[in-house]
Amino acid sequence: MKRLFNLILIFIISIFLWLFVDIVATNFLDIRGFSKFLTAHKKVGHINKPNFKGHFGGPFNDFYANVSIGSKSERTSSNKICKTTKEVIFIGDSTVAGFEVEDDETFVSLINLSCKDHGLSGINFGVRAHDTHGVIGNYQRVGHAHDHQAVFYLISHNDVTGNNIILDYKNIVMKFGRIYDGNFYKPKISFIKKIYYGIRVFVSDNFYFTTKYIRTLEMSSNVRNEKKIKLSKVKPYNIKDIERLVTLLSILKKEVDNNRAGLFVGFSPCLNYDCEKEIELENLLSKEINKRNLDIRLFKIIKKVNDMALKRPNIKRKMKFRSDQHLSKFGHKIISYILVNELINSKI
To answer: Which CATH number does 32-190+231-345 carry?
Structure first.
């Protein structure tokens, strides 16, 4: 009995020392879990926390980037170096926010730094874990306060299905609430669940090495489960999801019209080798926009990156991180190049 007690005591002390070292190291490295960068907002659900900064990623990630948030909750971008430019508001989720690269390496910063070549500049209002509902709320929050000629919404593929799920990004919704069809939704959960989700977010925000270990175990489990599933032909996107997306885009379009600006949209690039499903998604969205006679210009970013990959086979691999699908520094360069050309051709 005494031996068992000693083993339990050693185990408890070991766990305590591990967590103590982890939280000290996490703070010493200035690593911040992504919900640390967020704050609640009843008209949006969550936004970037104003005047906040920290490092995103860490020693066991492919990135360890300094991320700064400005006073208006925008991702800090390099200042434009031109006296007069046409201003673009960039909105979307984590791909736009670009926490994986430095402040001056996002595609918005690169556009600002090259403004003498094209006369464009931008402000980055990308927020991690935003879908189209959050994007609409965020634009309603900031659109009237900025003199801009265009709005570009970079749509992530998971927005297409996530727009129909009230508890999409469950941990974030549990902590901050969510905007869904213009209404603020705060889940009513039991005390036990509240503690559970609170602990999950707390660990994610403050214990970098513990979080990485847990996610490694989860990824290993997911890989094993996927191997048990026989993958047949990839299912196409549900047309109802596309119609839902366009309905939300029409709401965003009205908001943009009220500010006398133009709305431009495009899907995040497909950085896999087989992008047939994503190209189909692009075509379906184009057809639905035209069907409704909406004055929304779609930039076919997926097709453009695919066409580049035909000439430069390694380009997709270089555009993302080794173990993360978000845009690398090189990926942001490619996107800035595509967007500048598309916006110039659109004569905003």
So the answer is: 3.40.50.1110
